Amino acid sequence: MRIALKLSLCLITAAALNSCASAPQPLTSKPPAKALNAQEFSVGDGFLIKKFTFPAGIYRPEMEDKNGFYFSPPGGQIKVFDSGMRYGSSGGIYWKKNESTPGSVFVKGNFGVVANLAKKDIPATPVR
Q1: Range from 13-17, 47-51, 59-63 that averages highest in pLDDT
Q2: Could you give the angle at the alpha carbon of 20 between the alpha carbons of 14 and 25, nearest 5°?
Q3: Distant-in-sequence, close-in-space partners of 67: CB < 8 Å, separation ≥ 6
Q4: So where are the chain's domains?
Q5: Whose C-alpha in 2, 29, 79, 100 is 20 to 30 A from the C-alpha of 66?
Q6: Helix count (H) and strand count (E) of the chain?
Q7: Which CA distances in Å does 90 have to 2, 17, 77, 95?
Q8: CA 1 to chain CA mean position, Å
């Protein structure tokens, strides 16, 4: 019983530390592109998972973490559709360091939590 309790506490502590380990920070290194010129695209379906629609336009690098760069959309907002409700949220394109093209998007949720969602076919062209 004591071993199970200790193991549970260790796992909870590790998860808590890991979630805080790579929070977005201001840019300190050079991003792979000055900007991304993107066409409108979506992630999700709006019913089983929220549908996030990313607007067309120029996405600029604004933040980074130890793994990649956060490119924000024009106006700083994306559209969210969730079971009949529509609203705006913060989000953008996430480009991992040492990769040739961006392969995921990010959405900022409640309490500043940032979720990365895989999206391999992002219709964006780097501006160098």
Answers
A1: 59-63
A2: 155
A3: 22, 96, 97
A4: 31-127
A5: 79
A6: 1, 12
A7: 43, 24, 5, 16
A8: 39
- pLDDT per residue over 73-114, tens digit each? 999 999 999 887 888 899 999 999 999 999 999 999 877 788
Q: Name residues whose C-beta falls within 8 Å of residue 62's C-beta, 6 or more positions apart in sequence.
A: 27, 70, 71, 72, 92
Q: What is the end-to-end Cα distance of the chain in Å, rounded?
A: 58
The encoded tokens of residue 115 equal 């979720």
Q: What are the Cα distances from residue 96, in Å, to 3, 46, 66, 82, 90? A: 38, 26, 9, 28, 19
**pTM listed for this prediction:** 0.79
- Give the containing element (helix H, strand E) for 15: helix 2-21
Question: Alpha-carbon distance 65 to 11, whole Å?
Answer: 23
Closest CA to 90 of 121, 112, 65: 112
Q: Residues with Cβ < 8 Å from 37, sequence gap 6 or more?
A: 57, 58, 59, 124, 125, 126, 127
